[in-house]
Every structure is written in C-alpha cells, then in structure tokens.
Amino acid sequence: MSDAVLTPLGSARTPVGVEAPRERRLDLILLAIAAAARLPFIWRGFGGHPDEWMVVRSGLDLWRRGVYFPSRGPGYPLSEVVMGGLAWLGGPPLCAAASLAVSLVAIALLRKLAPFYGVRNSFWMVLAFSFEPWFWSSGTHDLDYVWGTCALIAALYCLERRELRGCGLLCAAGFAFRPSSLLWIFPVFTRVVWTERDWRGVARFALWAAVPALVPALMIASKSALVMGPGGWQVAELTRASHAPVAALLLAVYRFVELIGHVPALLLFLAACWLYRARLAALFRSGESWVWNFVLIFLFLFAEFISQSEKPELMLPALPGLFMILGRCISDNWWKALTVAFVFNAFISFGLGHALPAGGLRLDLAYPTLRPGPLLLYAQRAKAQNAFVAQVGAELSQPSRIVRADPTDDHLDPYYVASGLVRAPQSQARIACPLAPALVAYPDGKPPEIVSRPSTWVLRRGYQPALVCCETGSALVLPSTPAAFDDRLREAAARFCRSRAPALPPASPASR
Predict the structure, then answer these.
(1) Rounded to whole angstroms, how far apart are CA atoms 345 and 323?
(2) How far is residue 349's CA from residue 61's CA, in Å, rounded to a whole number?
(3) What does the pLDDT read at residue 366?
(4) Among positive and negative, which fits the CA dihedral 428, 433, 438, 444?
C-alpha cells in the first residue's frame, strides 16, 4: 500500500536532510527514462499528424515572407512562429526535439507540483504520466498539444507557490499556443480568486495574463474573418454534435478511453477506483478546492471534446488533474501496472469499427481488431505522407507537367513546406524545385488562369490553390482539378513563370 494519504495542501515536497539528494536522483532517472523513450521517434519527419504541415507552413511564411496566415482557425500564433522558425533552422528533428524538451519540462514540473496536493512518493505516478500514449507521442512531433499541457502544469505550479505574475504569464503563453486553453484558464482564474481572496492578487494575475495575450489575440483577430469564413469558425463540428448529441457523447467517451490507454488501462483505472473508493470519497468530501478545480477543468475541456472527439490530444490538459486525484488514493503498484498498459497501448491499440463514417455522425461497431497505437500511427502516417511528397517532387522536376496532389489532401501545405526546408533528415521528403504559391482562377466563359497569391493563403469563390515550379514550368494542383484543363493550365503556368521572371538589363552598345 502506498503511503499517499490525505495530507494538507502545500505539504513539503521532500523531507529535510538525506532524502533531498535521493529525490534529485529520482528526478534525473525519471527524465532520463522519458528522454530515452522519445529520442528514437524524433527523426521520422513531418506528416505524422495532418495539421503538422499547416503549422510549419504558417510559420515559414511568417519568417520568410513576413506574411501571417493561420494554419487553421482561429489561429495558433506562438506555435506557428516557434515551429516555423525551428523548421527553417533545423527541419523536423529540431521541431520534434523542442517538443521533447517541453514534455520533459512538463514531467519535471508535475513531480514538483505533486506535493502541493499531498501526493508523496510521486515517482511512479509521474513515470506513468510520461508514458501515457498520447502525451508520449505528442512529445515527438511539432504540434502544440504538449506545449499547452506544459503551460497548464507550469501555471498551476506558480499558482501553488503564490507566484501570480508567473501564473498569469504562463496562462497567456498557453492561450498563444492554443486559444482553446481558455477552457482551462477560466478554472485557474477561479482558483486564484478562491485562494487569494484579495483583489490585488487577482488583479496582478489578470494583468499578467491579459496584457501579453493581447499580441496573439490581435494576430488572431486580424485574420479571423479570413479563417472563419461566412459560416463561422468550426460551425460544422459544433452543429454536428447538436444534430446527434447521443452519438457525439458516445464518441467522446470512446475517444477518451483511447486517450487514457484504451481497454487495458481503462480496466486498471476502474479496478483501482473501486478498490480505493473510500479514499476517493474522502478526498472529494475533504473540502480541498484543488480537487474541484481539476474537475472543472475536465468538464470544460470535455464540453469542447464532444464536438471534436476525433482528436484525443485535445483532452491532454485534463490528465494532470486525473493523475493527481488518483495519486492521492492509489498505491504505487497500480501506477506500475498502468505504465505497462500505457507502453502496450502506445504500440498496439484496439479498433471497434468506424467512429466517423462518411455518411454522417454515427457508430458502426465491429469485431475488435488490433491496430497501431499512437506512436506507430504517427510514424506510419509520416512515412506514407513523405513517400507521396517525394513522388510529387519527382514529377514536378519534369518539364511542363500538371501534377495532382494526394487524393486525400484538400490543401497543398506538405509540398510547399517540403520545397522550403533548408535542413532535414533523410526520412523527410524534400522538393528541390522552389514552389511559388499561386491560385487557379476559373473566370466565367474563359479558360482557367494561374495567378499570383501575393499576400495570403485565403481562397475566394472560383479559385483553387496551386504551386508552380518555374524552373520546369510545372504546376501542382488539387486532385479535384479537371484533367480536361491540363493543356490550358500548362500554358497558364508558363505565363505565370514569365511574369515572375526578372527583367533583363538593357543591352550595352558593345554587345550590339
């Protein structure tokens, strides 16, 4: 039985004297294990997650052209700036290494945070958290999920230490990385009000959260009309849940089971909660406000998750609270068993049919099947995407070709990024020909034309995105572009390239 008991908030992290060096050694061991588990997976290249290419494209455009257009609505400014800059300097490995470093910071801070909630001997609990399949895999690619989760853990750590300026600044950073962080920032603000009971402390937190957040907020607002469009941001996802609320809720529950390690980990969680139900009940009756703060964070995040349950990573910020609550009640042996279940699920998962078939939002259950877990899934996606990018690059290197993107793509970001990377590992596909952003215009009653896209990636009705290689006169278009127009598009690509060619200097008298 673990010695985790219901101790007061703010208990000391380590005993005085000889225990402190032992705790530091355990911290180093924990971080070394987590780093070693992530390093082999940072060399796979972009493409593990569908949004990776878009984030890097947005950042590369900002750094190289001075133009900001969000990767997806409403905009993720700090993530796009950081990842675009890192991709420009060092390619995918540098982006993944940054996420790895941030995941290690989150792990270290979670261990420091545990004693404030009365969780002693937190080594096994934090080790289990480090191997949670989606947190583990998120620390190996360049999306913002692990950054947002780290911002929450760091903000809570500052809050419990009464460092309200730091807490507010970290909330602003969380918002800049992921605007949906507002869903956990509000509960954090509520806890600040509850613990401080003084308007000056609350104002200090609010100012340090709000003022730095103005920069990303203005970046988002400046492009919101372009990203959101006439229908509003993510209206399709929100209305989908309202049209089929029961199915959406069931899907969210199923996806959350996927998040926490699927069936093996779920059974362990349920068994541990049942065995230690008396401790759990006592904890919820104890009146410690931090417990309800984590419950509020979970509820706020889950409300959004019902509409977007195809991305389990959205619920990652809810996991630190879940682990802390259980860490106060269950023994270390349960955390060891959960670690094994997490590692298993990172490589092997279970399929129960199709959750989101093309016909609409419904559950099509089937016999359970084995499928790749998050780590392998990311690696397989990256390999497949990079193989197709390499194939497209080879076709674009041939003269006067009209090449179509992957039929599963509705954007051209992977190819634009692959043509703009300076450094990349061998596993990352690169396109040698620089690709210029363009638009395929379909004027009424006239042949299609390829026109420049000077400032943004926004599309208007009657236009489709395109990329042009002016070294060969070839163009890359969406798979939906009619093949009947290929001859006209080749001519349009040639005119596009001639219009971009620098003007020749006037001939000197000696050359006449």
Answers:
(1) 18
(2) 37
(3) 52
(4) negative
pTM: 0.87
Q: What angle do CA 106, 293, 287 make, to 5 degrees?
A: 125
Please state the rounded mean pLDDT for residues 496-500: 86
Q: What are phi and psi of 44, to 5 degrees?
A: -80, -15
Q: Is the separation of the CB atoms in 502 and 512 below 8 Å?
A: no
* Sign of the Cα pseudo-torsion (32, 34, 37, 40, in order): negative
Q: What is the DSSP letter of 353?
A: E
What is the rounded CA–CA span in Å between residue 172 and residue 159?
A: 14
The 10s digit of each residue's pLDDT in 257-312 is: 989 988 899 999 999 999 999 999 999 999 898 999 999 999 999 998 988 888 88
How far apart are alpha carbons 179 and 306 in whole angstroms? 17
Using a pLDDT cut of 90, give the percent of the chain over it: 49
Give the residue carrying structure tokens 């958290």. 129
User: In this predicted model, what pLDDT tens digit does every residue of 232-245 receive, in sequence order?
Assistant: 334 344 445 555 67
416 close to 57: Cβ distance less than 8 angstroms: yes
DSSP secondary-structure letter at 477? E
Residues 6 and 286: beta-carbon distance below 8 Å: yes
Tell me the C-alpha distance between 364 and 147, whole Å.
Answer: 34
**509 burial class (0-12, 13-18, 19+ CB within 10 angstroms)?**
exposed
The residue among 149, 372, 147, 131 whose CA lies nearest residue 260 is 131
Higher pLDDT, 208 or 350: 208
Tell me the β-bridge partners of 364. Answer: 354
Is residue 319 within 8 Å of residue 135, measured between CB atoms? Answer: yes
DSSP assignment of 78-97 equals HHHHHHHHHHHHHHHHHHHH
Identify which of 80, 93, 86 has the alpha carbon closest to the alpha carbon of residue 54.
80
Quote the strand ranges of 373-455, DSSP E. 402-404, 435-441, 449-452
Which residue in the block uniquely carries the two structure tokens 């409403």?
A: 74
Radius of gyration of the chain (CA): 26
161 φψ region: left (φ > 0), alpha (ψ -120 to 50), beta (else): alpha
Count CB atoms within 10 A of the CB of residue 250. Answer: 16
Question: In 10 A of CB 343, how many CB atoms?
Answer: 19
Identify whether the C-beta of residue 51 lies closer than 8 Å to the C-beta of residue 71: yes
